Amino acid sequence: MSLLEVNHLTQQFGGLKAVSDVSLTIEDGELIALIGPNGAGKTTLFNMLTGVNVPTSGEIKMATDKGQVLINGKRTDQVAKLGMSRTFQNIRLFAELSVLDNIKIAMTSNTRENFVETMLRLPSFYKKESAIEDEARKLLTDFQLIRYARSTAGSLPYGLQRRVEIVRALATKPRLLFLDEPAAGMNPEETADLTAVISRIQKDYGVTVVLIEHDMSLVMNLAQRIYVLDHGSLIASGTPAEIKQNPAVVAAYLGGEAVAEG
Ligand SMILES: Nc1ncnc2c1ncn2[C@@H]1O[C@H](COP(=O)(O)OP(=O)(O)OP(=O)(O)O)[C@@H](O)[C@H]1O
Ligand SMILES: [Mg+2]
After folding, report:
1. Which pTM was predicted?
2. Using CA atoms in the order 249, 252, 254, 259, what is the torsion angle rounded to 10 degrees?
3. Which residue range forms the structural domain that includes residue 251?
4. How many domains in the chain?
5. Nearest residue to 249 via CA among 209, 216, 204, 207
6. Ligand 2 being an ion, which residues bring their Cβ within 5 A of it?
7. What is the CATH classification number for the domain harbouring 52?
8. Is there a domain that residue 61 lies in?
9. Closest ligand by atom to 44 CA
10. Is the same domain home to 111 and 132?
């Protein structure tokens, strides 16, 4: 059973089919890239998979302990509880809060805190609070962010804000992490750091990663498999080597960016 199975998924906006009859699978532990020209429907597909958009038709099924669960029509918080997490194309941190608090909030977002326990400040509340603090600090240390723990998130350089956002998504302990253009706006050094971060999330944390990216060097370096969308339709899938030589992919990118490394 695949971790995620998508069958004939379509998203219609008025007369526009932003995503049209897309079927794909994501296996447990994989690192997948979703590429395609601007407006191809990549973010719209992510939005359906993560409960932001309700699909017009088709189905999304996720493997869980209790067997396959239909994701369609579930809210973002329900999808998150099943083990999906994501970042957005534009940074969405709590800019006024500290980096540490951003991570701590994410860690508690998936657990239903006991209201009475919290209000009465019972000993168990403090025990949990300190465990959360320790775990958040460990995550920040793991991703070389600990020295910014007390900085407000919005005050960090762009590349580090992006990293905080990814670590925040990881803090919800997902099985499946979706990253929408994580390298956008980064310089080559920041992109190299990001490549290492994403690779560690897959290898050390055992998280399945799906990323949308226009930076082909990052895609070709990281992805085990690539899906290509064009005008809402899936036009190709395969290994990086296969995708680079695929005539339909090369044609889709003609006039846009070439599918070349670097
Ligand atoms: N909520 C919406 N209502 C109407 N049209 C939408 C909506 N969201 C996206 N679209 C349209 O759907 C198409 C696909 O958009 P989408 O954002 O999914 O593309 P994308 O592949 O992520 O592009 P980019 O690489 O530029 O981020 C575009 O034509 C877009 O204008
Ligand atoms: Mg997009």
Report:
1. 0.91
2. -40
3. 1-83+175-262
4. 2
5. 216
6. 43
7. 3.40.50.300
8. yes
9. 1
10. yes
